Amino acid sequence: MYAKKRYLVFALITCIAMFLPFLQINATHFFLLSFDKKELHLFFVRFDMQELYLMPFLFIFLFLFIFFMTTLGGRVWCGWSCPQTMFRVIYRDLIQTKILNIRKSIKNKQTPAQDGFKKAFGVGIWAVVSFIAASNFMWYFVPPEDFFNYLSNPAEHKTLIGILFFITLWLIFDIVFLAEKFCVYICPYARVQSVMFDNDTMQVIYDDSRGGLVYKNGHKFEKTELKNSLKECINCEACVKICPTHIDIRKGMQLDCINCLECADACSVVMGRLNKPSLISWTSENSILTKEKVKYARFRTIAYFIVLCVAGVALFLMSGKKENMLLNINRSTELYEINQNGNVENNYIFLFQNTDKNAHSYFFDTNDTNIKISSPTEPVDIKAGAKKRVVVTLESKNLGLSTQKDTPIKITINAYAVDENATIRAKREAIFVYPKKRNIENFKKGRKKA
Ligand code: SF4
Ligand code: SF4
Q1: Which UniProt keywords apply (predicted)?
Q2: CA 234, CA 431: separation in Å to the nearest integer?
Protein backbone atom coordinates (compact mmCIF):
# COMPACT_ATOMS: atom_id res chain seq x y z
CA MET A 1 0.00 0.00 0.00
CA TYR A 2 1.41 3.33 -1.08
CA ALA A 3 -0.90 5.57 0.98
CA LYS A 4 0.91 5.07 4.30
CA LYS A 5 4.30 5.63 2.67
CA ARG A 6 3.03 8.79 1.01
CA TYR A 7 1.62 10.12 4.29
CA LEU A 8 5.00 9.45 5.94
CA VAL A 9 6.78 11.35 3.17
CA PHE A 10 4.25 14.21 3.50
CA ALA A 11 4.88 14.38 7.26
CA LEU A 12 8.65 14.36 6.75
CA ILE A 13 8.52 17.12 4.11
CA THR A 14 6.23 19.22 6.32
CA CYS A 15 8.59 18.86 9.32
CA ILE A 16 11.62 19.81 7.21
CA ALA A 17 9.83 22.77 5.58
CA MET A 18 8.67 24.07 8.97
CA PHE A 19 11.93 23.50 10.82
CA LEU A 20 14.49 24.57 8.19
CA PRO A 21 13.88 28.36 8.39
CA PHE A 22 14.62 28.22 12.14
CA LEU A 23 17.93 26.44 11.65
CA GLN A 24 20.89 28.83 11.61
CA ILE A 25 24.65 28.49 11.59
CA ASN A 26 26.46 31.73 12.45
CA ALA A 27 23.18 33.63 11.99
CA THR A 28 22.92 32.26 8.43
CA HIS A 29 20.05 30.14 7.10
CA PHE A 30 20.02 27.08 4.86
CA PHE A 31 17.95 28.97 2.28
CA LEU A 32 16.78 32.56 2.52
CA LEU A 33 16.16 35.05 -0.26
CA SER A 34 15.71 38.29 1.64
CA PHE A 35 14.55 41.22 -0.49
CA ASP A 36 14.43 43.22 2.71
CA LYS A 37 18.14 42.80 3.52
CA LYS A 38 19.14 42.15 -0.10
CA GLU A 39 20.77 38.86 0.82
CA LEU A 40 20.76 35.27 -0.35
CA HIS A 41 21.57 32.55 2.17
CA LEU A 42 22.42 29.23 0.60
CA PHE A 43 23.80 26.15 2.38
CA PHE A 44 24.45 28.42 5.44
CA VAL A 45 26.59 30.86 3.41
CA ARG A 46 25.47 34.47 3.13
CA PHE A 47 25.62 36.24 -0.24
CA ASP A 48 24.93 39.84 -1.00
CA MET A 49 22.52 40.69 -3.87
CA GLN A 50 25.58 41.88 -5.84
CA GLU A 51 26.94 38.33 -5.60
CA LEU A 52 23.99 36.73 -7.38
CA TYR A 53 26.30 35.10 -9.93
CA LEU A 54 25.28 31.99 -8.02
CA MET A 55 21.62 32.18 -9.07
CA PRO A 56 22.08 30.92 -12.68
CA PHE A 57 23.96 27.86 -11.33
CA LEU A 58 21.20 27.30 -8.80
CA PHE A 59 18.50 27.49 -11.49
CA ILE A 60 20.46 25.23 -13.86
CA PHE A 61 20.86 22.70 -11.03
CA LEU A 62 17.13 22.85 -10.18
CA PHE A 63 16.03 22.45 -13.81
CA LEU A 64 18.41 19.53 -14.37
CA PHE A 65 17.18 17.92 -11.16
CA ILE A 66 13.56 18.25 -12.37
CA PHE A 67 14.49 16.73 -15.79
CA PHE A 68 16.37 13.88 -14.11
CA MET A 69 13.61 13.20 -11.59
CA THR A 70 10.86 13.29 -14.24
CA THR A 71 12.70 11.01 -16.68
CA LEU A 72 13.35 8.52 -13.90
CA GLY A 73 10.19 8.66 -11.80
CA GLY A 74 7.60 10.39 -14.01
CA ARG A 75 5.21 12.47 -11.93
CA VAL A 76 6.79 11.38 -8.66
CA TRP A 77 6.83 15.02 -7.53
CA CYS A 78 3.05 15.36 -8.07
CA GLY A 79 2.12 12.27 -6.08
CA TRP A 80 4.71 12.40 -3.31
CA SER A 81 5.85 15.96 -2.67
CA CYS A 82 3.69 18.60 -4.35
CA PRO A 83 2.12 20.97 -1.77
CA GLN A 84 -1.11 20.99 -3.85
CA THR A 85 -1.44 17.20 -3.45
CA MET A 86 -0.53 17.34 0.25
CA PHE A 87 -2.96 20.19 0.96
CA ARG A 88 -5.78 18.40 -0.85
CA VAL A 89 -5.14 15.25 1.20
CA ILE A 90 -5.26 17.34 4.40
CA TYR A 91 -8.43 19.23 3.39
CA ARG A 92 -10.42 16.49 1.62
CA ASP A 93 -9.31 13.29 3.34
CA LEU A 94 -8.40 14.52 6.83
CA ILE A 95 -10.60 17.54 7.54
CA GLN A 96 -13.71 16.79 5.44
CA THR A 97 -13.71 12.98 5.62
CA LYS A 98 -12.01 11.91 8.87
CA ILE A 99 -12.66 14.88 11.20
CA LEU A 100 -16.00 16.28 9.98
CA ASN A 101 -17.52 13.19 8.32
CA ILE A 102 -19.05 15.21 5.49
CA ARG A 103 -17.62 12.88 2.86
CA LYS A 104 -18.59 9.24 2.85
CA SER A 105 -15.16 7.70 2.62
CA ILE A 106 -11.59 8.29 1.47
CA LYS A 107 -12.29 5.49 -0.98
CA ASN A 108 -14.92 7.54 -2.79
CA LYS A 109 -13.80 10.94 -3.93
CA GLN A 110 -16.50 11.31 -6.57
CA THR A 111 -19.36 12.34 -4.24
CA PRO A 112 -18.93 15.94 -3.11
CA ALA A 113 -18.92 16.91 0.57
CA GLN A 114 -22.32 17.65 2.13
CA ASP A 115 -23.15 21.36 2.26
CA GLY A 116 -23.95 23.03 5.55
CA PHE A 117 -22.36 24.33 8.73
CA LYS A 118 -19.79 21.53 8.90
CA LYS A 119 -18.53 22.37 5.42
CA ALA A 120 -18.13 26.03 6.37
CA PHE A 121 -16.36 24.92 9.57
CA GLY A 122 -14.03 22.80 7.43
CA VAL A 123 -13.18 25.85 5.35
CA GLY A 124 -12.47 27.69 8.64
CA ILE A 125 -10.06 24.95 9.78
CA TRP A 126 -8.40 25.02 6.36
CA ALA A 127 -8.09 28.83 6.57
CA VAL A 128 -6.02 28.41 9.76
CA VAL A 129 -3.82 25.75 8.10
CA SER A 130 -3.49 28.05 5.05
CA PHE A 131 -2.30 30.91 7.24
CA ILE A 132 0.34 28.65 8.83
CA ALA A 133 1.43 27.35 5.39
CA ALA A 134 1.58 30.90 3.99
CA SER A 135 3.69 32.01 7.00
CA ASN A 136 5.97 29.00 6.51
CA PHE A 137 6.43 29.98 2.84
CA MET A 138 7.21 33.58 3.83
CA TRP A 139 9.95 32.43 6.23
CA TYR A 140 12.10 31.60 3.19
CA PHE A 141 11.95 35.29 2.24
CA VAL A 142 11.56 36.98 5.64
CA PRO A 143 13.40 34.97 8.32
CA PRO A 144 11.28 33.88 11.32
CA GLU A 145 13.30 36.10 13.72
CA ASP A 146 12.12 39.18 11.71
CA PHE A 147 8.76 37.77 10.61
CA PHE A 148 7.29 37.58 14.13
CA ASN A 149 8.65 41.05 14.97
CA TYR A 150 7.08 42.50 11.84
CA LEU A 151 3.81 40.69 12.55
CA SER A 152 3.61 42.30 16.01
CA ASN A 153 3.89 45.70 14.32
CA PRO A 154 1.55 45.39 11.30
CA ALA A 155 1.10 49.15 10.74
CA GLU A 156 4.76 49.46 9.72
CA HIS A 157 4.83 46.29 7.63
CA LYS A 158 1.73 46.56 5.47
CA THR A 159 3.41 44.95 2.43
CA LEU A 160 4.36 41.83 4.39
CA ILE A 161 0.87 41.57 5.91
CA GLY A 162 -0.69 42.13 2.46
CA ILE A 163 1.41 39.37 0.83
CA LEU A 164 0.71 37.01 3.74
CA PHE A 165 -3.04 37.51 3.44
CA PHE A 166 -2.94 37.24 -0.35
CA ILE A 167 -1.14 33.85 -0.14
CA THR A 168 -3.56 32.66 2.56
CA LEU A 169 -6.60 33.67 0.47
CA TRP A 170 -5.08 32.04 -2.62
CA LEU A 171 -4.55 28.78 -0.69
CA ILE A 172 -8.16 28.83 0.52
CA PHE A 173 -9.48 29.48 -3.01
CA ASP A 174 -7.10 26.95 -4.57
CA ILE A 175 -7.66 24.04 -2.19
CA VAL A 176 -11.38 24.57 -1.48
CA PHE A 177 -12.63 25.68 -4.91
CA LEU A 178 -10.05 24.89 -7.59
CA ALA A 179 -9.04 21.56 -6.05
CA GLU A 180 -7.60 19.09 -8.61
CA LYS A 181 -8.67 21.43 -11.45
CA PHE A 182 -5.42 23.22 -10.68
CA CYS A 183 -3.40 20.07 -11.51
CA VAL A 184 -5.48 19.28 -14.60
CA TYR A 185 -5.89 22.72 -16.20
CA ILE A 186 -3.41 25.18 -14.66
CA CYS A 187 -0.18 23.50 -13.51
CA PRO A 188 2.51 24.06 -16.19
CA TYR A 189 4.67 21.19 -14.90
CA ALA A 190 1.93 18.70 -15.85
CA ARG A 191 2.02 20.00 -19.45
CA VAL A 192 5.80 19.89 -19.97
CA GLN A 193 6.70 16.69 -18.20
CA SER A 194 5.06 14.28 -20.64
CA VAL A 195 7.74 15.16 -23.25
CA MET A 196 10.40 13.89 -20.81
CA PHE A 197 8.79 10.47 -20.51
CA ASP A 198 10.11 7.40 -22.30
CA ASN A 199 8.97 3.78 -22.20
CA ASP A 200 11.09 3.14 -19.10
CA THR A 201 9.73 6.07 -17.07
CA MET A 202 7.82 5.09 -13.93
CA GLN A 203 4.07 5.65 -14.30
CA VAL A 204 0.81 4.41 -12.86
CA ILE A 205 -0.22 1.70 -15.32
CA TYR A 206 -3.18 -0.64 -15.61
CA ASP A 207 -2.00 -4.00 -16.93
CA ASP A 208 -4.59 -4.72 -19.62
CA SER A 209 -2.83 -7.97 -20.56
CA ARG A 210 -4.01 -9.29 -17.17
CA GLY A 211 -7.09 -7.18 -16.53
CA GLY A 212 -8.46 -7.02 -20.06
CA LEU A 213 -9.48 -4.06 -22.20
CA VAL A 214 -12.03 -1.55 -20.88
CA TYR A 215 -11.55 1.13 -23.54
CA LYS A 216 -10.90 1.03 -27.25
CA ASN A 217 -9.71 4.17 -29.09
CA GLY A 218 -10.66 6.23 -26.01
CA HIS A 219 -14.24 4.90 -25.89
CA LYS A 220 -15.48 2.67 -23.12
CA PHE A 221 -16.91 -0.69 -24.17
CA GLU A 222 -20.62 -1.28 -23.72
CA LYS A 223 -21.58 -3.59 -20.84
CA THR A 224 -22.13 -6.49 -23.18
CA GLU A 225 -18.76 -5.99 -24.87
CA LEU A 226 -17.04 -5.71 -21.48
CA LYS A 227 -18.13 -9.23 -20.61
CA ASN A 228 -15.95 -10.50 -23.43
CA SER A 229 -13.04 -8.07 -23.16
CA LEU A 230 -12.46 -8.13 -19.38
CA LYS A 231 -10.13 -10.75 -17.94
CA GLU A 232 -9.03 -10.48 -14.29
CA CYS A 233 -10.57 -7.01 -13.75
CA ILE A 234 -13.94 -7.45 -12.06
CA ASN A 235 -15.00 -3.93 -13.10
CA CYS A 236 -15.70 -2.97 -9.47
CA GLU A 237 -14.58 0.59 -10.29
CA ALA A 238 -12.89 0.97 -6.88
CA CYS A 239 -9.95 2.49 -8.78
CA VAL A 240 -12.26 5.03 -10.46
CA LYS A 241 -14.18 6.02 -7.33
CA ILE A 242 -11.01 6.72 -5.35
CA CYS A 243 -9.34 8.85 -8.05
CA PRO A 244 -9.04 12.49 -6.94
CA THR A 245 -8.87 13.75 -10.54
CA HIS A 246 -11.94 11.73 -11.54
CA ILE A 247 -10.34 9.64 -14.27
CA ASP A 248 -10.27 5.96 -15.13
CA ILE A 249 -6.66 4.76 -15.29
CA ARG A 250 -7.79 1.74 -17.32
CA LYS A 251 -8.10 4.16 -20.27
CA GLY A 252 -4.29 4.47 -20.37
CA MET A 253 -1.85 7.23 -19.45
CA GLN A 254 -3.57 10.59 -19.06
CA LEU A 255 -2.25 14.09 -18.33
CA ASP A 256 -4.82 14.37 -15.53
CA CYS A 257 -3.18 11.55 -13.54
CA ILE A 258 -1.16 12.98 -10.65
CA ASN A 259 0.41 9.60 -9.84
CA CYS A 260 -1.05 9.56 -6.35
CA LEU A 261 -1.28 5.74 -6.62
CA GLU A 262 -4.60 5.66 -4.78
CA CYS A 263 -6.06 3.54 -7.60
CA ALA A 264 -3.19 1.06 -7.22
CA ASP A 265 -3.98 0.78 -3.49
CA ALA A 266 -7.69 0.36 -4.18
CA CYS A 267 -7.04 -2.42 -6.70
CA SER A 268 -4.56 -4.07 -4.29
CA VAL A 269 -7.40 -4.46 -1.77
CA VAL A 270 -9.80 -5.84 -4.37
CA MET A 271 -7.30 -8.21 -5.97
CA GLY A 272 -5.88 -9.12 -2.54
CA ARG A 273 -9.22 -10.71 -1.69
CA LEU A 274 -8.70 -12.96 -4.73
CA ASN A 275 -5.05 -13.60 -3.77
CA LYS A 276 -3.84 -11.78 -6.85
CA PRO A 277 -1.54 -8.79 -7.21
CA SER A 278 -2.98 -5.38 -8.11
CA LEU A 279 -3.82 -4.82 -11.76
CA ILE A 280 -2.60 -1.23 -11.39
CA SER A 281 1.01 -0.69 -10.48
CA TRP A 282 3.75 1.90 -10.39
CA THR A 283 6.01 0.64 -13.10
CA SER A 284 7.14 1.36 -16.67
CA GLU A 285 5.50 0.45 -19.98
CA ASN A 286 8.51 -1.70 -20.93
CA SER A 287 8.42 -3.48 -17.59
CA ILE A 288 4.74 -4.38 -18.13
CA LEU A 289 5.49 -5.67 -21.64
CA THR A 290 8.68 -7.60 -20.84
CA LYS A 291 7.69 -8.62 -17.28
CA GLU A 292 11.18 -7.56 -16.23
CA LYS A 293 12.25 -5.05 -13.59
CA VAL A 294 12.12 -1.31 -14.36
CA LYS A 295 15.32 -0.17 -16.07
CA TYR A 296 16.52 2.78 -14.01
CA ALA A 297 20.06 3.04 -15.41
CA ARG A 298 19.66 3.95 -19.07
CA PHE A 299 21.33 6.45 -21.40
CA ARG A 300 18.99 9.38 -20.61
CA THR A 301 19.04 8.98 -16.82
CA ILE A 302 22.81 8.41 -16.70
CA ALA A 303 23.40 11.48 -18.92
CA TYR A 304 21.13 13.65 -16.75
CA PHE A 305 22.83 12.32 -13.62
CA ILE A 306 26.32 13.17 -14.94
CA VAL A 307 25.27 16.69 -16.01
CA LEU A 308 23.51 17.13 -12.67
CA CYS A 309 26.71 16.17 -10.80
CA VAL A 310 28.73 18.64 -12.92
CA ALA A 311 26.22 21.42 -12.16
CA GLY A 312 26.28 20.45 -8.45
CA VAL A 313 30.09 20.64 -8.33
CA ALA A 314 30.02 24.00 -10.18
CA LEU A 315 27.47 25.32 -7.68
CA PHE A 316 29.59 24.09 -4.77
CA LEU A 317 32.79 25.62 -6.19
CA MET A 318 31.08 28.92 -6.97
CA SER A 319 29.63 29.12 -3.45
CA GLY A 320 33.19 28.61 -2.14
CA LYS A 321 34.26 31.77 -4.01
CA LYS A 322 32.28 33.91 -1.64
CA GLU A 323 34.05 37.12 -0.57
CA ASN A 324 33.32 38.67 2.81
CA MET A 325 33.83 42.10 1.33
CA LEU A 326 32.64 43.69 -1.87
CA LEU A 327 34.59 46.40 -3.62
CA ASN A 328 33.73 48.46 -6.68
CA ILE A 329 36.37 50.85 -7.97
CA ASN A 330 35.54 53.77 -10.26
CA ARG A 331 37.84 56.51 -11.48
CA SER A 332 36.98 60.14 -10.75
CA THR A 333 36.21 62.46 -13.70
CA GLU A 334 39.75 63.97 -13.99
CA LEU A 335 42.30 61.79 -15.73
CA TYR A 336 45.09 62.88 -13.38
CA GLU A 337 46.46 65.75 -11.32
CA ILE A 338 50.03 66.88 -10.69
CA ASN A 339 50.65 67.77 -7.06
CA GLN A 340 52.93 70.37 -5.41
CA ASN A 341 55.85 67.92 -5.48
CA GLY A 342 55.43 67.36 -9.20
CA ASN A 343 54.15 63.84 -8.65
CA VAL A 344 51.19 62.44 -10.61
CA GLU A 345 47.95 61.69 -8.74
CA ASN A 346 44.90 59.68 -9.86
CA ASN A 347 41.67 59.77 -7.84
CA TYR A 348 39.28 56.84 -7.43
CA ILE A 349 35.95 56.21 -5.72
CA PHE A 350 36.09 52.94 -3.74
CA LEU A 351 32.65 51.57 -2.83
CA PHE A 352 33.22 49.09 0.01
CA GLN A 353 30.64 46.73 1.40
CA ASN A 354 31.34 44.66 4.47
CA THR A 355 29.29 41.49 3.84
CA ASP A 356 30.71 39.79 6.93
CA LYS A 357 28.75 39.52 10.17
CA ASN A 358 31.45 41.49 12.09
CA ALA A 359 32.72 45.06 11.76
CA HIS A 360 36.16 45.40 10.15
CA SER A 361 38.87 47.96 9.34
CA TYR A 362 39.89 47.86 5.69
CA PHE A 363 43.03 49.08 3.99
CA PHE A 364 44.63 48.52 0.61
CA ASP A 365 47.84 48.56 -1.40
CA THR A 366 48.87 48.22 -5.03
CA ASN A 367 51.07 45.71 -6.79
CA ASP A 368 53.15 48.51 -8.39
CA THR A 369 56.03 49.70 -6.18
CA ASN A 370 56.13 53.04 -8.07
CA ILE A 371 52.51 53.83 -7.19
CA LYS A 372 51.58 54.40 -3.55
CA ILE A 373 48.43 55.37 -1.71
CA SER A 374 48.59 58.98 -0.57
CA SER A 375 45.04 59.18 0.83
CA PRO A 376 43.52 57.91 3.05
CA THR A 377 46.41 57.26 5.37
CA GLU A 378 44.45 55.26 7.99
CA PRO A 379 42.33 52.08 7.62
CA VAL A 380 38.60 52.61 6.96
CA ASP A 381 36.17 51.24 9.58
CA ILE A 382 32.98 49.64 8.22
CA LYS A 383 30.20 48.08 10.33
CA ALA A 384 28.87 44.56 9.61
CA GLY A 385 26.75 44.60 6.45
CA ALA A 386 27.38 48.35 5.88
CA LYS A 387 28.58 50.13 2.74
CA LYS A 388 31.08 53.02 2.59
CA ARG A 389 32.22 55.31 -0.21
CA VAL A 390 35.88 56.29 0.09
CA VAL A 391 37.81 58.73 -2.11
CA VAL A 392 41.26 57.23 -2.68
CA THR A 393 44.28 59.02 -4.16
CA LEU A 394 47.13 57.07 -5.73
CA GLU A 395 50.39 58.89 -6.29
CA SER A 396 53.25 58.02 -8.57
CA LYS A 397 56.75 59.53 -8.63
CA ASN A 398 58.33 60.56 -11.91
CA LEU A 399 58.32 57.51 -14.14
CA GLY A 400 59.76 59.26 -17.22
CA LEU A 401 57.31 57.62 -19.61
CA SER A 402 56.25 58.50 -23.19
CA THR A 403 56.67 62.06 -24.41
CA GLN A 404 53.89 61.73 -27.03
CA LYS A 405 50.81 60.58 -25.16
CA ASP A 406 49.34 59.73 -21.74
CA THR A 407 50.19 56.19 -20.61
CA PRO A 408 47.56 53.95 -18.99
CA ILE A 409 49.23 51.62 -16.47
CA LYS A 410 47.40 48.45 -15.39
CA ILE A 411 47.56 48.02 -11.63
CA THR A 412 46.08 45.57 -9.14
CA ILE A 413 44.58 46.92 -5.95
CA ASN A 414 44.55 44.56 -2.96
CA ALA A 415 42.00 45.49 -0.33
CA TYR A 416 41.93 43.59 2.98
CA ALA A 417 40.61 43.66 6.54
CA VAL A 418 43.60 44.62 8.68
CA ASP A 419 42.02 43.17 11.83
CA GLU A 420 41.63 39.70 10.26
CA ASN A 421 45.28 39.25 9.26
CA ALA A 422 44.14 40.00 5.70
CA THR A 423 42.17 36.74 5.45
CA ILE A 424 39.22 38.83 4.21
CA ARG A 425 40.46 40.34 0.99
CA ALA A 426 39.51 41.36 -2.53
CA LYS A 427 41.64 42.02 -5.62
CA ARG A 428 40.55 44.50 -8.29
CA GLU A 429 42.14 45.62 -11.54
CA ALA A 430 42.37 49.38 -12.19
CA ILE A 431 44.10 51.83 -14.52
CA PHE A 432 46.53 54.54 -13.42
CA VAL A 433 46.98 57.25 -16.06
CA TYR A 434 50.45 58.76 -16.31
CA PRO A 435 50.58 62.04 -18.32
CA LYS A 436 52.82 62.71 -21.31
CA LYS A 437 56.16 64.27 -20.40
CA ARG A 438 55.27 67.66 -21.91
CA ASN A 439 52.32 68.08 -19.53
CA ILE A 440 54.56 67.49 -16.52
CA GLU A 441 57.18 69.93 -17.81
CA ASN A 442 54.49 72.55 -18.58
CA PHE A 443 53.23 72.16 -15.03
CA LYS A 444 56.74 72.63 -13.58
CA LYS A 445 57.37 75.71 -15.79
CA GLY A 446 54.02 77.16 -14.67
CA ARG A 447 54.98 76.69 -11.03
CA LYS A 448 58.40 78.38 -11.56
CA LYS A 449 56.72 81.41 -13.19
CA ALA A 450 54.27 81.69 -10.30
S1 SF4 B 1 -5.47 7.51 -11.94
FE2 SF4 B 1 -4.72 6.68 -10.03
S3 SF4 B 1 -2.74 7.61 -9.73
FE4 SF4 B 1 -3.78 8.77 -11.30
S5 SF4 B 1 -4.72 10.44 -10.20
FE6 SF4 B 1 -6.25 8.84 -10.35
S7 SF4 B 1 -5.99 7.65 -8.48
FE8 SF4 B 1 -4.19 8.92 -8.67
S1 SF4 C 1 -10.03 -1.76 -8.84
FE2 SF4 C 1 -8.96 -3.29 -10.04
S3 SF4 C 1 -10.52 -4.84 -10.38
FE4 SF4 C 1 -11.62 -3.03 -9.73
S5 SF4 C 1 -12.14 -2.01 -11.65
FE6 SF4 C 1 -10.21 -1.16 -10.98
S7 SF4 C 1 -8.71 -2.39 -12.07
FE8 SF4 C 1 -10.63 -3.54 -12.14
Answers
A1: 4Fe-4S, Electron transport, Iron, Iron-sulfur, Membrane, Metal-binding, Transmembrane, Transmembrane helix, Transport
A2: 83
What pLDDT is attached to residue 143? Answer: 92
Query: Ligand 1 mean position to 423 CA, how many Å?
Result: 57
User: Could you read off the pLDDT of 46-80 as tens digits, one per residue?
Assistant: 777 666 677 787 888 888 888 888 888 888 999 99
Protein residue with least CA distance to atom 3, ligand 2:
233
Q: How confident is the model at residue 450 (pLDDT cuts 50, 70, 90)?
A: very low
Residue 275 has pLDDT above 70, yes or no: yes
Q: Whose CA is closest to atom 7 on ligand 1?
A: 243
Query: Rounded CA gap, 356 and 379, in Å?
Result: 17
Q: Which domains does the chain have, with CATH numbers?
A: 2-52+75-196 (no CATH), 203-283 (no CATH), 325-449 (2.60.40.10)
3-class secondary-structure state, position 228: helix
Render pLDDT for 285-313 as a digit per residue (tens, 0 to 9): 889 888 888 888 888 889 989 999 998 88
**Residue 211 near ligand 2, beta carbon < 6 Å:** yes
Please answer whether residues 31 and 58 qualify as being in contact, where contact means their C-beta atoms are separated by less than 8 angstroms: no
Q: Are strands 31-34 and 45-48 parallel, antiparallel or unpaired?
A: unpaired
Protein residue with its CA nearest to atom 8 in ligand 2: 233
What pLDDT is recorded for position 326? 83
Nearest CA to ligand 1 atom 8: 260
Over residues 93-121, the pLDDT tens digits come to 999 999 999 998 999 999 888 888 999 99
Q: Ligand 2 centroid vs 218 CA: distance in angstroms?
A: 18
Find out whether the peptide bond into 188 is cis, omega within 30 degrees of 0.
no
Phi, psi of 205 (to 5 degrees): -130, 135
Return the best residue to mutate from 2, 92, 245 for the ligand 1 pocket (most ligand atoms within 8 A of CB). 245
Q: Which atom of ligand 1 is nearest to the CA of 256?
A: 5
Position 71: which residue type?
Answer: T
Ligand with the closest atom to the CA of 248: 1
Over the stretch 150-174, which tens digit does the pLDDT of each residue have?
A: 998 888 899 999 999 999 999 999 9
Question: How far is 324 from 417, CA to CA, in rounded Å?
Answer: 10
- How many other C-beta atoms can be found within 10 angstroms of the C-beta atom of residue 22? 12
Ligand nearest to the CA of 2: 1
422 contacts 416 by C-beta, under 8 angstroms: yes
Of ligand 2's atoms, which has the minimum distance to the CA of residue 232? Answer: 3
Residue nearest to atom 5 of ligand 1 (CA): 257
Percent of the chain exceeding pLDDT 70 equals: 96
pLDDT at 123: 96
Mean pLDDT for 339-354 is 86
User: 177 φ, ψ to 5°?
Assistant: -105, -45
